[in-house]
Amino acid sequence: MTRLGRSDLDILPLSLGGNVFGWTADRDTSFAVLDAFHAGGGNFIDTADGYSAWVPGNSGGESETLIGEWLASRKPSNVVVATKVSTHPDFRGLSAANVRAAAEASLQRLGVDTIDLYYAHFDDAETPLEETVAAFGDLVSDGLVRHVAVSNYTAERIREWVSLAEASGVALPVAIQPHYNLVHRTDVERDIVPVAEQYGMSLVPYFALASGFLTGKYRTADATGDSPRAEGAAKLATPAGLALIDALEEVGDAHGASIATTALAWLRAQPAVAAPIASASKVEQVADLLASARLELSADELAHLSRASDAAQD
Q1: pLDDT (average), residues 186-191
Q2: In 3D, which of 162, 48, 160 has the Cα closest to residue 103?
Q3: Burial level of 232, CB count in 10 A (0-12/13-18/19+)?
């Protein structure tokens, strides 16, 4: 287990992504995935109020609803649920009124009294940051949220958020959720990691497996008829990208680990990273995700993978 930033949240260093629930995973599959994750020691679940409004027939909140139904059915212990605000069709942006209304709606869908970790999903340039920071602080003061966090914020805006929170005495963010993986490193390592280290915040990276590319599934640029994310993953199948997959396979084979497990283990070992986020649309995928939380790569292996990834940046 690891501690998330300066919070009191102890988590397995792998977060189960809920973006697929209600999208590529139906109710029964979602429950099976959640059951397998929890049975294997996983306790950190990531979702957002907007998941999965992009699916025809959905209106947003489907992922939270399924997670809430699972929580009510299973009554699991020590589960940490993170969700986000700003993308639900009915609750766009980060005005104070919207943040409060969205949090209350998320609480109802999740069926919990308190959200463990609440992210500002995307920065809102139309709302003064002071208003958003105060709104998140009020949620903590009122007991609706335990800890606050930010996602997709620039380093400058994160520093501004922290300064405003310190000046007004409200809850400081404990985590940052950036797009970060072996094929997308440069801006995060240059800009975001120093901020996280400065303020004692943890990184909880999304797209940890680059939409599936870092599972080794996509060895060509042809993804016809594959999953909804396949086209984006297949675009990464460049010579440099495939050389990176070969390096992951080599390192993984030395540990009896899959390519996906090895890619997540590399990410987990990076400075300030607490728990990469990875999703599973099939229950058979969960074991490889959980294995990454326990795979310890050597310094030489980590350096080898970093070198292999240098030429494969997207």
Answers
A1: 98
A2: 48
A3: middle
Token code pair at residue 154: 């620039």
Q: Is residue 15 a contact partner of residue 45, using CB atoms and an 8 Å limit? A: yes
| Tokens standing for residue 242 | 């495939």
Q: Sheet of 115-120: strands edge to edge?
A: 202-203, 173-177, 145-151, 115-120, 80-85, 44-46, 15-17, 277-278
- Region 133-155: what's the mean pLDDT? 98
Residue in 88, 102, 86, 16 with CA at minimum distance from that of residue 51 = 88
- Strands 91-92, 87-88: parallel, antiparallel or unpaired by DSSP? antiparallel
Residue 129 clears pLDDT 60, i.e. is over it = yes
Q: What is the pLDDT of residues 225-250, one digit of tens each?
A: 556 567 778 789 999 999 999 999 99
Give the integer Cα–Cα distance in Å for 242 and 180. 18
Over the chain, what HEC string results? CEECCCCCCEECCCEEECCCECCCECHHHHHHHHHHHHHCCCCEEECCCCCCCCCCCCCCCHHHHHHHHHHHHHCCCCCEEEEEEEEECCEECCCHHHHHHHHHHHHHHHCCCCEEEEEECCCCCCCCHHHHHHHHHHHHHCCCEEEEEEECCCHHHHHHHHHHHHHHCCCCEEEEECECECCECHHHHHHHHHHHHHHCCEECCECCCHHHHHHCCCCCCCCCCCCCCHHHHHCCCCHHHHHHHHHHHHHHHHHCCCHHHHHHHHHHCCCCECCCEECCCCHHHHHHHHHHCCCCCCHHHHHHHHHHHHCCCC
Amino acid 218: pLDDT = 85
Tokens of 172: 């400081």
